[in-house]
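Chain A, query sequence.
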Amino acid sequence: MTEPILISKTKLHIINEVRRLRISLGISTEQLAKHCSEGSDTNKFTKIESGTTTNSYTDETLNCIAKFFSKISGEVYTPADFYPNETFKEELIPKDIIEIPAPEGPKYILNEILNNTDFLQKPRSTKEITTFANEHFDGEWNEGHFTSTAFRMSQQENNKLKRIDDGERVWYIDIAYFDDGKGDANKDG
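Chain A, predicted structure.
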């Protein structure tokens, strides 16, 4: 039997809090790595969130994460947000990473549509996105749920969603399928 990986109680709290906030904001460990990893270790955050290593966050990395969370959410985060609010006896404990189900909010649903369907390979209106989400993700969404979320996602660095405003309607398309040549993208949806 493998011995459990031991880590300080404070470090474990920080790892789990970053994980909880990361998932609630719809941010992948890969996105964190692109934003906060210097050098070639793109698996840094996956390793930290695994229960198989003693890896944990440095204050420098927590500062970068706080800035990235602030940019994505529009709220202000600081490294202090990841530390425990209460005091406790500091001791080494098993590195048990909490399981957090992915939230099924509009950002999560849009990412699911982008990553697991071909629906956004053609430009779609938020009305069409809403209908698709309700039919395929058992939702009771209205168009307002996706309007601001799709806009914010299209404005983010390293976005996967492109916003097209033709003066009459606004369309969204998977950026991998957007033709930014002289012709318009195909709008047959």
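Residues 182-189 have pLDDT under 50 and may be disordered. Residues 7 and 180 are 49 Å apart (CA to CA).
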